[in-house]
Amino acid sequence: MKEIRGFQDVVGHRDIISHLQNAIRLNKVSHAYIFCGEEGSGKNMLASLFAMTLQCKEGGTEPCMNCISCKKALSGNHPDIIRITHEKPNSIGIDDIRSQLVNDVAIRPYESPRKIYIVDEAEKMTPQAQNALLKTIEEPPAYVSIFFLSDNPGLFLPTITSRCVMLKLKPVSDQAVKEYLVRELQVPDYQAEVQASFARGIIGRAIKMAESQEFNEVTQNALQLLKQSKNMEVYELVDAIKSMTAEKQNVYQYLELFTMWFRDVLLFKATKEVDDLIFKSEFNYIKERAAVSSYRGLEAILEAIRVAETRLHANVNYDLTMELLFLTIREN
After folding, report:
1. N or C, fewer C-beta in 10 Å, the chain?
2. Average pLDDT in the 196-214 region?
3. CA neighbor of 261 nearest in space, from 308, 214, 197, 192
């Protein structure tokens, strides 16, 4: 994966980057920020780049990447950029926060103008841990900034969120994700189209897919199953997907790929256009399916996929759920 050299290399989030750079330029950096967004949306990257920029010896609005401060930050050894750790995987307790943050802020920076604390998975802080932070957030030393990173800021106490600047990372456009995958990771165009759509604007998720041979295999298996469905009995289709979804962990990927495929079929049936299809490389099969399926039939299939996903989440019998789904696909 390409090494990020500064804010200019980040895909999307230009409004947040502009806000952070203006805060640096105007010397109005807040004492506390919440970076919130889905896993893989870029919270850690933005917080890390912001911390590096604030500590950079060049004093600009981008980290120079060459000074001793930037090099230490890149290696994870900067004494004034502190990442809060926790032993319990699902909880950040009051002892973690007190020992690593609350009791530490009184110590002045070792070599930089600031001390920056980064709390990843901050939604895991217990209410007691959050309450222990209140005084520090309300009256921090002038040199302290705290960055909370969270997938679910709704779990913060209102007393925490009201004292922080909230930065919400929005999904990036599919086109921007696709261009990044093609340009930086040399992903073939037809694969990047699928991965970008599947990632739903989360660049980290797209990168994982691009680097995962398993995802490419799942995609090919799903397409083969759909293309062969008219020549297979329902029980054969159920047996086939059971063999592909070991322990049922990736069955939801198959269902999402099925949805993307049939949406392409529906789109082509309505427009006869190829440019907006996700599976452009499968155009001939999509055209063939569009010719034999009615609008009502395609809508019934898409609804059946949605229902199948709901049933699987509710632990309804796997074989029966998939049998009903493939029956609908065969009949329509």
Report:
1. N
2. 84
3. 197
